[in-house]
Amino acid sequence: MANRQIRLFRPEDADQISQLFHQTVREINLRDYSSQQVKAWAPDDLNFRNWAEVCASRDTFVADDAGVIAGFGELEANGHIDCFYCHKDYQRRGVGRQIYQAIEARARELKLNCLFVEASITAKPFFERLGFTGGNAQQVTRRGVTFTNYRMEKYLTNHDES
User: Fold this and answer.
1) How far, CA to CA in Å, does 40 sit from each of 8, 14, 35, 133, 157?
2) Which end of the chain is more exposed for a tag (fewer CB within 10 A), N or C?
């Protein structure tokens, strides 16, 4: 863990990130969603070539553990946190918290007042521990399959927290 650093996305990260996303959804989120749901969320034929373009268009923070991408999270200009995933082998090791701290610091630099996320059933407790509230269940459909996730938000104060 001493070699782990949080940094911004680089184009050469796209392959690892796309695989991390696919494996995490298929293995970790399978605890809370059906096989049909995780296959719709992370299909085998997902176009992984788009990852570089999407990640580069946002503030995408990567947890780099000596060349292994341990997790990533994306901050959009409006305060939306999208695609927040930790590698299946790095769960519950502080990776998500480190990525989130970088996202919140960037949000403060951008003078955003609120962050919001659509958290999966799996991720909802993590975001609650970070101070997100709301948790209103909503139904979303991906590739013809319906899932439950939770819209959550966190209001940022105008001063930096220590």
Assistant:
1) 28, 21, 9, 27, 37
2) C
